[in-house]
Structure formats: structure tokens, C-alpha cells
Design brief:
Helices cover 23% and strands 17% of the residues. The protein has one helix and two strands; from the N terminus they run ββα. This is Enoyl-CoA hydratase.
């Protein structure tokens, strides 16, 4: 189940306004564990600039959460 998390102050938002920036990324929390999934099989999960920013943003969210053990 994907969830929307607050924007950390030190991490820029992805360029297109979607908090992950692309439909090819999904983010789930399973207790203290965060799972970010890349799903772009037609390009062998090659990263786009939007995917890079979305993944970077998700890592920033996890690192700013005091309940998370971090990345």
C-alpha cells in the first residue's frame, strides 16, 4: 500500500509535482522498513531523470523520519 509522506525540508521535490515524480516508482512502508520499487521493465529498469529525483526524494523522506533506522 503506497502512502504519501511529508516533504522533508532539505530534499527538493521532484520536478513534475508528483511526490515520486514518475509512475515507474512506488513507495511502501512495512513498519520501519521502506521499500521503493522500480517498475520499468520495457527499458530494463533504466533510470530517467524523474526517476532519479523521485528515488532521491524517497531516500530523503526515510532519512528524515525519526522512526526509521535510515538508509
Amino acid at each position: 500500500m503506497a502512502q504519501t509522506l511529508p516533504t522533508p525540508q532539505s530534499t527538493p521535490r521532484p520536478p513534475d509535482g508528483d511526490w515520486l515524480g514518475t509512475p515507474y516508482l512506488s513507495f511502501e512502508r512495512e513498519g520501519p522498513i521502506a521499500v521503493c520499487t522500480i517498475d520499468r521493465p520495457e527499458a530494463r529498469n533504466a533510470m530517467t531523470p524523474a526517476m532519479y529525483f523521485g528515488l532521491r526524494y524517497a531516500v530523503g523522506v526515510v532519512n528524515s523520519d525519526p522512526a526509521s533506522p535510515g538508509c
